[in-house]
Amino acid sequence: MRLKIPFEPSTSGVRSTTSRCSCRRILRLPAPIVSVEIVNPIVWKEFEADKLSILDILAIDNADRRLNVEVQRTKSSWLPQRLTYYSATQDARLKWELDENTRIQTAFEEGEARGEARVRIELIRTLEELLRLQISSDAELRGKSLEELQQPAQFLQEMIRNRPSS
User: Fold this and answer.
1) Which among 38, 60, 75 is the end of a domain?
2) How far apart are CA 137 and CA 144, in angstroms?
3) pLDDT at 55
4) 6 with 65, same domain?
5) Average pLDDT, stretch 65-81?
6) In-domain check, residue 136
7) How high is the mean pLDDT of the chain?
8) Residue 56 forms part of a structural domain
9) How many folded domains does the chain comprise?
10) Is pLDDT at 131 greater than 70 in this prediction?
11) Mean pLDDT value of segment 13-21
């Protein structure tokens, strides 16, 4: 998250209360920021395409949110538009991340279901081979749901249990 927060100099330096209130107002937080840990402002490249960033202040709050605080000595007339832009970019990025996580989770679940279906198909073929039955073809088994594959698998398992011992 990137913030541009104007501050007012005082005899003791920066008025931290004003900055904390500004942060709360900009972030629309339900509760005030209680404390902020100032961390190394150098953000190293994680990937080759990334660029090295050196921030005014990089902070982490109690909710483990990373805050890029840019210090402004004057309140520019364009600041509200700039803050709106940053907020919109952050919202768009969050939406993209949520959509991407949903897509990955769906793909993972579909992959799990396909894997379970393959295991069930191999079980059916192994049982058919043990019982010396005709092995089912790909066309007969592929595309069936797990529930549809469960019935022949249970039937073949029952046949194995009930076959006469040699």
Assistant:
1) 75
2) 12
3) 66
4) yes
5) 74
6) yes
7) 77
8) yes
9) 2
10) yes
11) 45
Q: For residue 53, what are its two tokens?
A: 């960033």
> Do 70 and 106 sit in the same domain of this protein?
no
On whether residue 84 sits in a domain, the answer given is no
d(CA 98, CA 45): 23
| Average pLDDT of the residues in 38-67 | 73
Q: Indicate if 70 and 108 belong to the same structural domain.
A: no
Q: Half-sphere exposure of residue 84, counting CA atoms within 13 Å on the CB side?
A: 5
Which position has the higher pLDDT, 94 or 24? 94
pLDDT in tens, 90-119: 889 889 999 999 999 999 999 998 899 999
Q: Are residues 54 and 114 located together in one domain of the fold?
A: no
Range of the domain at 59: 2-75
Residues 6 and 66 in one domain: yes
Within this chain, do residues 64 and 106 fall inside the same structural domain, yes or no? no
**Over 90: is that where the pLDDT of 37 sits?**
no
DSSP string, the chain: -EEEEE--EETTEE-HHHHHHHHHHHHT-SS----EEEE--EE--SSTT---EE-SEEEEETT--EEEEEEESS--TTHHHHHHHHHHHHHHHHHHHHHHHHHHHHHHHHHHHHHHHHHHHHHHHHHHHHTTPPPPPHHHHTT--HHHHHHHHHHHHHHHHHSPP-
